[in-house]
Amino acid sequence: xxxxxxxxxxxxxxxxxxxxxxxxxxxxxxxxxxxxxxxxxxxxxxxxxxxxxxxxxxxxxxxxxxxxxxxxxxxxxxxxxxxxxxxxxxxxxxxxxxxxxxxxxxxxxxxxxxxxxxxxxxxxxxxxxxxxxxxxxxxxxxxxxxxxxxxxxxxxxxxxxxxxxxxxxxxxxxxxxxxxxxxxxxxxxxxxxxxxxxxxxxxxxxxxxxxxxxxxxxxxxxxxxxxxxxxxxxxxxxxxxxxxxxxxxxxxxxxxxxxxxxxxxxxxxxxxxxxxxxxxxxxxxxxxxxxxxxxxxxxxxxxxxxxxxxxxxxxxxxx
Length: 319
Ligand code: ADP
Ligand code: MG
Ligand code: MG
Prior knowledge:
Elements: E1 6-12, E2 15-21, H1 26-43, H2 51-57, E3 64-65, H3 68-82, H4 93-99, H5 111-117, E4 126-129, E5 134-137, H6 150-164, E6 170-174, E7 177-181, E8 191-196, E9 205-211, E10 215-220, E11 225-228, E12 231-234, E13 249-256, H7 259-282, E14 288-293, E15 297-300, E16 307-310, E17 316-318
Parallel strand pairs: 15-17
Antiparallel strand pairs: 1-2, 2-6, 3-5, 4-5, 6-7, 7-10, 8-9, 9-16, 10-13, 11-12, 13-14, 14-15
Helix pairs in contact: 1-6, 6-7
The site of one magnesium ion has 5 residues, from loops.
Catalytic activity: L-threonyl-[protein] + FAD = FMN-L-threonyl-[protein] + AMP + H(+)
Keywords: FAD, Flavoprotein, Magnesium, Metal-binding, Transferase
Cofactor: Mg(2+)
C-alpha cells in the first residue's frame, strides 16, 4: 500500500475514474473531475449533444465548425485511420451503434446489414478544412466515434493540468487509461499498475507493471462484450469486416509518454497481433507493450519503460 496517498473517485464517461494525490486536496480533485466532464461534453457520441454529434448530425449535408481541441483530435484520428493497413478507424460509428456492445439491445446483426454499413466507414470521406476548422462527413449516415482515443486524450489533458498546478506526483485512471506524474514518494521503482486477469474478478491480477511518469493503457476484449453461441462478441472491431477483431489476443497494454498514443496503439497492435506487433515495436523506442493471449501467455516487448512483476503463475511469461 502506498503511504500518504489520497484517492478520489467518480463515475464519468460511463467509467470509474480514480485520482491519486499525495496531499489532501478535494478542491483540486473537483477541478479535475470538472475538467473531465467538460472534455467529455465535446467528444461524446453517447448523448444527443456534443461537438462530435453536431458533425455526425450534419453528415451528407454540410460541414461543421468545431473547437480547436476537437479539430486537432479528429485530425490525429483521421491520419491514423487512413494509414495503410491500420486497424484503427474513427468512422466506425455506424458499426459500433449497430452492434450496441456494452449497451442495451446488443445482438449479432445479420451479415448483410453489416456489409451494408461498411461503405459508411470510409475515413477518406471525411473532409477536414484547416482554414475554418470544419469537418464534413461526405455521406449521409456516416458517424465519427472517438471512443478509442478520447479517454487517452483526456488523461493527457488532466496530466497537463496537474503539472501546471505544480503537482509533482499523481495518478489518474480513466477506466483503464492510466496516466501518471513522477513516482510515489519513497517508491523509486514507480507506480504499480495492475494487469487484470482476463474475465477474472476485479482484484485478480496477472501481474503488476511499474512505471514512472508514463501512461499505461489497456484494451481488452473482456472490458465490454456479450456471449452468444459460445462466442465472445467484444467492442474492438475489425474495420475491414465490421465484426469484433478475432485473433489470439485477450488484451494489449501500451506503455508510452502520451496516453493518447497508448490509446491509439492498443487498437493498432490489436489489429497486428503478437508477432507483427512485436516486430513493429522493435523500431519504436518510445513504446512498450504487453500482450495477453488466449493460450495463457503474457508477452512483453523488450521493456524499456516499465518493469513487470508476475503474480499469476498459471500464465506463461515471455519477452
Ligand atoms: P475501452 O473502451 O475499453 O477504453 P478502446 O480504447 O479500445 O477500449 O476503445 C474501444 C471503443 O473504440 C469502442 O467502444 C468503439 O467506440 C471504438 N472502436 C471500436 N473499434 C474501433 C476501431 N477499429 N477503430 C477505432 N475505434 C474503434
Ligand atoms: Mg480506451
Ligand atoms: Mg483505445
